[in-house]
Amino acid sequence: MVLECRGGMRHNRPMSEPLSTLAVIGGGAWGTALAQTASRAGRSVCLWAREPEVAEAITTRHENPDFLPGVPLEPAIRATSDLAQALEGAEAVLVVCPAQALRPVLAAAAPHWPSGAPMVLCAKGVELGSGLLMTEVAHEVLPTVAQAVLSGPTFAKEVALGRPTAVTIAAADPALAERLVSALGTRTFRPYAANDPVGAEVGGAVKNVLAIACGVVEGLGLGDNARAALLTRGLAEIIRLGRALGARPETLSGLSGLGDLILTATSAQSRNFSLGFALGEGQSLESLLSGRRTVAEGVPSAKAVVALAERHGIEMPICAAINNLLAGAHDVAGAMEALLSRPLRAETD
Ligand SMILES: NC(=O)C1=CN([C@@H]2O[C@H](COP(=O)(O)OP(=O)(O)OC[C@H]3O[C@@H](n4cnc5c(N)ncnc54)[C@H](O)[C@@H]3O)[C@@H](O)[C@H]2O)C=CC1
Ligand SMILES: O=C(CO)COP(=O)(O)O
């Protein structure tokens, strides 16, 4: 079956005109949920899924049983596994692939990128090896494309079901953030405009590692005090790294930082929290990752975040303990011991 995605003629719109046609790159749970909310906001949406069977299920059966089962999708959403088709005529592109796949996916998209269309980076992570944030990776691949970051406390299924949700849309250019807020906002999907994209992405990347830590503590049955301590000291790690990278503290304590940390690190709906919980109960990382199709971004990002912190001379002991656990350098008891044996010190150090 040929799946067509035609958003109209390729053209550059003046910055003030509304964005009517969007491409969503990524057919996982979050790309599908964002396509759903954009379609409900009245946008014409074409989604690119890597798997042809996912594209076909979305277009013909209006569902994504592989990555977002049980949620009826808007019939108007079109999907394709052809990147060129997905991008044709798009006035903005939401990039929603896993963080470690961002570089190759953007490189494949680059020859087909619609002239003048900004990108909205929606993945949460830090690139392994380079230690680059998503905006930095994207800038290396597509240096002339305007960027925004969409991040916040957002379980995909709740968004797709239309449950009330607030997010941050951050762009260095405030006019771009406002246009995206207008394009995506609805009564229940409520984007807040911001102009600190780095702050928005640091919170989203680090909270996944901290969610694994909270899951471990829960799986070990260490209690509510321990979880509260991890959340608070975890936020201190987000703020320390964010400041070093030029983020503003108020962004880190907003929706994309503290908000997402609270959501992800306290809910069994989170893949990162659940993975940590299973590790705390004694399951092996290998068994948890084998055959898995969904992402737990905290796993690759732990190593990248710790390397980034070392490069900036910042202490991130919770992230370091999780990195050691995931790398097999410590078992669960060893990772806890590394945290509990740290010297006592002033809270604000
Ligand atoms: N699921 C959620 O509730 C939310 C997810 N996010 C973020 O969105 C990003 C995407 O996550 P999900 O949509 O949840 O994914 P998912 O776990 O539902 O599905 C995995 C997706 O990754 C794709 N994929 C796997 N390997 C790939 C590769 N090498 N190249 C290109 N694509 C590949 C698969 O085709 C599939 O679309 C992640 O960074 C995640 O942290 C952000 C907010 C909410
Ligand atoms: O980013 C998310 C919620 O904001 C999704 O978290 P998980 O990837 O841990 O499920």
UniProtKB/TrEMBL annotation:
**Active-site residues annotated for this sequence:** 207 (proton acceptor)
Source organism of the structure: Pararhodospirillum photometricum DSM 122
Q: Which GO terms describe its molecular function?
A: glycerol-3-phosphate dehydrogenase (NAD+) activity; glycerol-3-phosphate dehydrogenase (NADP+) activity; NAD binding
Q: Where is the Glycerol-3-phosphate dehydrogenase NAD-dependent N-terminal domain?
A: 22-176
Answer whether the UniProt record assigns the keyword Cytoplasm to this protein: yes
**Know the name of this protein?**
Glycerol-3-phosphate dehydrogenase [NAD(P)+]
Please state every residue range assigned to the domain named Glycerol-3-phosphate dehydrogenase NAD-dependent C-terminal: 196-336
- Output the Pfam families linked to this UniProt entry: NAD_Gly3P_dh_C, NAD_Gly3P_dh_N
This protein's gene is called: gpsA
Record: residues binding sn-glycerol 3-phosphate: 124, 152, 154, 207, 260, 270-272
Q: Which residues bind NADPH?
A: 30, 50, 124, 156, 271, 295, 297
HAMAP family tied to this protein: NAD_Glyc3P_dehydrog
